[in-house]
Design goal:
Number of domains: 2
Distance between the termini: 83 Å
Number of strands: 13
Strand content: 35-45%
Radius of gyration: 28 Å
Number of helices: 4
Largest sheet: 6 strands, mixed, barrel
Order of helices and strands: EHEEHEEEEHEEEEEEH
Strand order of the largest sheet: 1-3-2-6-5-4
Helix content: 10-25%
CATH topology of the largest domain: Ribosomal Protein L25, Chain P
Shape: elongated
Structural class: alpha+beta
Length: 225
C-alpha cells in the first residue's frame, strides 16, 4: 500500500480575533489555523475549509507529516489539534506543529485491531472484545512515524487482556506511557466472558440438582406411604 501524501495550501493571516475568524468562515469558506514549534515564532494561517475537511476523511491525516504550501515555501508539520463544530460537519480551527527530520515528535496514532473474529476467546469461548483504547501516544523521528499500530487479538482468551507492553511497536517508535514506568502499562483491550456465562451455568446446574433432590424426596415419600 502506498503511503498517502497530504498537502494543504495555506496563506498568512494578518486579521486576527474572533470577529475576523467568523468573517473568514462565513465569507470565504476558510478557517483560521496556527503553525508553531521548532523554536520559531507562531504563524497565523488561513486554510480552505473544504480542503482540510476532505483531508480529515482519511484517518492517516492525523498520523502523517503534512506539507503546508505557504506561497513558494513549504513547511512540514503534524496536526496537533482540530476544533470541530459540535453539531455540524464543520471544522472551526486547526493547530499544526512544525517538524524537523532530526527531532522526535510526540503524537497520537490510531490502533488497528486484527484477528478479532479469529480471537480464541471469541471464536471458541463466545467472548466479546472490549477496547479501552483506540489510539496511543508515541514519540519517534518523523521518518519513523507509523500510519497506525496493530494490536493482534488472535491468541487472547476469555478473561485475558492486551496491555501496552504486549504491542509490537515499529522500530524507532516509543510508547509515551511505558516510558513512565510499569505502572503505566495500561490495558488496551480485554476479552470478556459472554453474558450469562459461567455464573449462569452454575445457576442452571444448582437448579437442576435441587429439582432432582426434590423429585427424589417425593419418590421416597410415596414409597413410605
Amino acid at each position: 500500500m502506498s503511503t498517502p501524501a497530504f498537502e494543504l495550501d495555506v496563506t498568512v493571516r494578518t486579521d486576527t480575533g474572533k470577529g475576523a475568524s467568523r468573517r473568514l468562515r462565513r465569507l470565504h469558506n476558510a478557517i483560521p489555523a496556527v503553525l508553531y514549534g521548532a523554536q520559531k515564532d507562531p504563524v497565523a494561517l488561513t486554510i480552505d475549509h473544504d480542503a482540510i475537511l476532505h483531508a480529515t476523511d482519511n484517518e492517516a491525516f492525523f498520523s502523517h507529516i503534512i506539507t503546508l504550501n505557504l506561497g513558494k515555501k513549504k513547511e512540514l508539520a503534524v496536526i496537533k489539534d482540530l476544533q470541530r463544530h459540535p453539531a455540524r460537519p464543520l471544522i472551526l480551527h486547526a493547530d499544526f506543529l512544525r517538524v524537523s527530520e532530526d527531532h522526535a515528535i510526540h503524537i497520537r496514532v490510531p490502533l488497528h485491531f486484527i484477528n478479532e473474529e479469529k480471537c480464541v476467546g471469541v471464536k471458541t469461548g463466545g467472548g466479546q472484545i472490549l477496547k479501552s483504547m483506540t489510539e496511543i501516544d508515541i514519540t519517534c523521528l518523523p521518518k519513523n512515524l507509523p500510519e497506525f499500530i496493530e494490536v493482534d487479538m488472535l491468541e487472547v482468551d476469555i478473561g485475558q487482556s492486551v496491555h501496552l507492553s504486549d504491542i509490537s511497536l515499529p522500530e524507532g517508535v516509543t510508547s509515551v506511557a511505558l516510558s513512565h514506568g510499569a505502572e503505566s502499562d495500561h490495558s488496551v483491550a480485554t476479552v470478556q466472558a459472554p453474558r450469562g456465562g459461567a455464573e449462569h451455568d452454575i445457576d442452571d446446574i444448582e437448579a437442576a440438582e435441587e429439582a432432582e433432590a426434590n423429585a427424589a424426596g417425593e419418590d421416597e415419600a410415596e414409597e413410605d406411604s
